[in-house]
Design a protein that fits this description.
The complex is a heterodimer. Chain A is α+β, with helices and mostly antiparallel strands. Among the domains of chain A are: 36-132, Immunoglobulin-like; 150-180. Helices cover 32% and strands 34% of the residues of chain A. Chain A is built from two helices and nine strands, in the order αβββββββββα. In chain A, the strands form two sheets. A five-stranded mixed sheet of chain A has the order 2-9-8-5-6, with no helix packed on it. In chain A, strands 1, 3, 4 and 7 form a four-stranded antiparallel sheet that branches. Chain A is elongated, with a radius of gyration of 35 Å. Chain B starts with 6 loop residues before the first helix and ends in a 21-residue tail after the last helix. Chain B has a single domain (7-27, 62-395, 420-448), classed as Formate dehydrogenase/DMSO reductase fold, CATH 1.20.1630. Classes of the chains: A alpha+beta, B mainly alpha. Chain A binds chain B through residues 76-77, 138, 140, 151, 154, 158, 161-162, 164-165, 167-169, 171-172, 174-176, 178-180, 182, 184, 186-191, and chain B through 53-54, 128, 130, 140-142, 147, 150, 154, 157-158, 161, 164-165, 168-170, 172-173, 175-177, 194-200, 202-203, 206-207, 209-210, 213-214, 217, 221, 427-428, 431, 451-454, 458-459.
């Protein structure tokens, strides 16, 4: 009996609290500011160390201390997904910066996302990074240099081997040619 | 009576041709059943690979610390097996060891098939196989992986040529002898691959020149291939792989496992196609002696490595030794050391086990032992921590086991199909050696031997 009475009192209270919570969250979401984000990427060449910048503003006023995630679009086996480049916080000017080194030439779709926080809704921006040909990422710094022992030496050995293969193939071609010129009656047998 | 004027010689040739060519014309129900089972295993392996392709390498046991496992083990293992052809065929051909003649074809064929399967493994190991072309676009001459691609491509091409050259007269024989007893596909195949071979003196001279070049060239190529494979490990900054003798150790191990694989194949083919007259106990015992010698060489290399490294115990050597001798990899290591090196050697050296069944058992132990050796080299090297963290563990997932099983099934399948297309014994070479012996025994000079010809049937349709 006691427990039923408790329920009669508690149930309306719980329902009222739930309705209040939903109402207050919708009001706060309506009140939250809607920031705008702009993504700034410089022109780059392969191997360049560049800064990708996202600027987060609300009606022209910077949003500091906001976490921005930078991505680049990727695709594998027809499944698109985004590769995280890095995460950065906006400074007092609303600017978040990550460093990026493009490794391939061409156009890269760069994306930035702000998931939102107290008083601010989320924001999203994307732009295209154009990467030109560069001097290459890798620089050969040989520790010990022996004159004559280099890539040319390796290429010379490989060329000699493959040249011999082609000579043997030439001999096979000659065997075939001899066969087509020899009447079946001469020799005529397989071995 | 054959043109050599000896009924024994022509009778031998006819019997040899009949025996070796007969598998090309018939296939039993058991053969098709075997093919069916192998295809099913391969299909399961393909399913496992599609799972890996869809979900990524996460479905394997590979993680950030142990990034090479089953696939790279299989890569090294199959490249090793491929050395059968080089040693048995090329080295023994150069040294004019006549006993090797009936086994060369099988050895050369193992080489080509093992290379085909082995070269697939690094591709399967790739998390992003769609980027494999990057190796060619962005590959650097300084990278061991570039040398690997070049060495394996060169070895595969050379082995294919080396397999094909002595096959030309046998293809011509199949063309002339088999006629309508084989399918139209095989008739076209034999006619095409025989490239108009008539056995004329000029053709024979050119064939011998080509074979002479290839048998010498293929030896350094084969040695370079497994040396380069060893450099994939030896040139990585890992203490367990920091071994300058890795190249020669890998080459010796490759020849060791290659001979064992060849012996297993010989036993199966001898039994299946009743080739007892041509694959005699002498062939198995000679190969067994080579196996025993190589087991001693392998032991020597192991002792050399362990004594020099173990005496100094620099870097992570202590951890490396502990994980091999008493730690996580001990079962693999001790099976290799005892089952893969000591027992096979003992089986062959004891006279009453030095027979075909004994040598077969020794060979099976060697093949399993050498697989385990590849496994603990690959995994052990990466398992040894390079920084103060706990050693990671690796165990292959069902995907890796499935792909491994499919790889072996693929290896057996290609050989099973090939023995129905290619003569498994070099008929013309065996006959030539036999004829020379017969004539020499009767006191006729070998130079007087006329070019041997087929006694049975006239030339075929082309």
């Amino acid at each position: 009996m006691i427990s039923t009475n408790y329920l009669k009192v508690l149930l309306p209270l719980v329902l009222a609290a739930a309705i209040l919570a939903i109402w207050s969250s919708s009001v706060s979401a309506q009140d939250a500011a809607r920031p705008s984000m702009e993504l700034i990427v410089p022109a780059a060449a392969v191997g360049d160390v560049i800064d990708l910048q996202a600027v987060l503003l609300v009606e022209g006023v910077a949003v500091p201390e906001a976490e921005i995630t930078f991505f680049r679009a990727t695709e594998f086996m027809n499944n698109g997904s985004d590769l995280v480049i890095g995460i950065a916080m906006t400074n007092t000017r609303g600017v978040a910066t990550v460093t990026y080194v493009p490794r391939t030439e061409g156009e890269i779709l760069v994306l930035a996302e702000f998931e939102g926080m107290d008083g601010f809704r989320g924001a999203f921006a994307e732009t295209t990074l154009i990467v030109g040909a560069g001097p290459g990422q890798y620089k050969v710094e040989a520790g010990v240099s022996v004159p004559g022992v280099n890539v040319s030496f390796l290429v010379a050995i490989l060329s000699a081997v493959w040249g011999t293969f082609f000579f043997v193939m030439f001999l096979i071609w000659q065997i075939a040619r001899d066969g087509s010129m020899t009447p079946a009656s001469e020799g005529g047998q397989s071995e | 009576m054959g043109p050599s004027g000896s009924p024994q010689i022509s009778g031998y040739r006819e019997r040899l041709e009949d025996r070796v060519l007969s598998p090309l014309t018939t296939a039993s129900r058991a053969y098709y059943l075997l093919i069916g089972i192998l295809v099913l295993i391969i299909a399961w392996g393909i399913y496992a690979y599609t799972t890996q392709l869809r979900d990524g390498l996460y479905v394997t046991g590979l993680r950030d610390r142990i990034t090479w496992g089953m696939y790279i083990t299989l890569f090294v293992f199959f490249i090793g097996i491929s050395h059968a052809g080089t040693l048995i065929s090329a080295i023994l051909r150069v040294s004019k060891a006549e006993w090797r003649v009936p086994v060369t074809r099988m050895a050369e064929f193992i080489t080509v098939v093992a290379l085909m399967i082995g070269a697939l493994m690094p591709l399967i190991d790739l998390g992003r196989p769609d980027r494999v072309h990057h190796l060619f676009m962005f590959g650097r001459w300084q990278a061991p992986i570039t040398w690997d691609i070049l060495a394996i491509t060169t070895y595969f091409t050379g082995s294919l040529i080396y397999l094909y050259l002595p096959l030309i007269p046998d293809f011509a024989l199949a063309r002339d002898r088999l006629g309508d007893s084989v399918s139209p596909f095989k008739r076209v195949l034999y006619r095409t691959l025989a490239i108009g071979w008539r056995g004329s003196p000029e053709q024979r001279r050119k064939l011998h020149v080509a074979m002479g070049i290839m048998m010498i060239l293929i030896i350094p190529i084969a040695v370079s291939v497994h040396t380069v494979v060893s450099w994939i490990f030896g040139m990585t900054l890992r203490d367990a792989w920091n071994n300058p003798e890795f190249g020669v150790f890998f080459v010796a191990g490759a020849i060791y496992s290659g001979i064992a694989a060849l012996i297993i194949l010989m036993v199966v083919i001898r039994k299946a196609y009743h080739l007892e007259e041509y694959l005699t106990p002498k062939h198995f015992i000679n190969l067994g002696y080579m196996l025993a010698a190589l087991s001693l060489i392998m032991m020597y290399f192991n002792i050399l490595e362990y004594v020099t490294e173990g005496y100094k115990l620099t870097g992570e050597s202590e951890f490396g030794f502990n994980q091999l001798f008493t730690g996580a990899l001990a079962p693999y290591y001790w099976f290799y050391a005892i089952g893969g090196l000591v027992i096979p050697g003992v089986i062959i050296l004891i006279p009453w086990t030095r027979n075909i069944p004994g040598i077969l058992v020794a060979s099976i132990l060697v093949v399993i032992g050498m697989w385990m050796e590849r496994y603990f080299i690959v995994v052990g090297g990466l398992r040894t921590p390079t920084m103060p963290y706990e050693a990671a563990d690796y165990f292959p997932s069902w995907v890796e086991w499935s792909i491994m099983t499919a790889a072996f099934a693929g290896f057996i399948l290609i050989i099973t199909i090939a023995v129905k297309i290619l003569p498994v014994i070099a008929i013309w070479e065996v006959a030539e050696v036999h004829d020379e012996h017969e004539l020499a025994a009767r006191g006729r000079p070998i130079e007087a031997v006329p070019p041997p010809v087929t006694a049975a049937q006239p030339a075929g349709g082309d």
